[in-house]
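W.,

You were right to be curious about this one. When I first looked at the sequence I had no strong expectations either way, so I just let the prediction run and decided to look at it fresh. Below is the sequence, 167 residues in total, followed by the output.
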Amino acid sequence: MDPWILEQMSSWRSPALDVFFGTLTWLGSLWLLVPLTAIAAASPWLTGDRLLALRILALPVAAALTSNVLKQLLDRERPALYEALHALPADPSMPSSHSAQIAALALGATLLMPEDIRWLAGLLLGSVALVVGISRLYLQVHWPSDVLAGWLIGILCALAILYVRPT
């Protein structure tokens, strides 16, 4: 199934989509997510809820660390069926760190939202996580199963960070 999906993604190529997905893929990058989470964590930190601030900061970082350890253990090669639109990263393919990082932050932020807007936040943030995952496929830098694994890692990291209480 992985090769067929990448073939379909390759058939979508257009200059406009190249720019669209090439830009949106950065929404899953730590270069963007770490500063965003630092800004989001500032308010709880300043109001004295340091544990919440640290949990917010941990969302993308935990997903990044987990996915990078798994990358080294699994050592899966990146796809080479079609020309990648960006230089292939040097690290292994499985799982997608971009997908894990944005999924962790999207779910974590959703769960921290007030209940009356949580569904809307989940819809919007979930859509961002979906588009980031699709961008990794469109750019031909990940297999679809890498993206699915990344989303799962991000979800599990967010749940662990927000619901596992220190004793």
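Here's what jumped out at me. The first helix runs from residue 2 to 11. And, maybe more interesting for your project: The chain has a mean pLDDT of 93.

Coffee later to discuss?

I.
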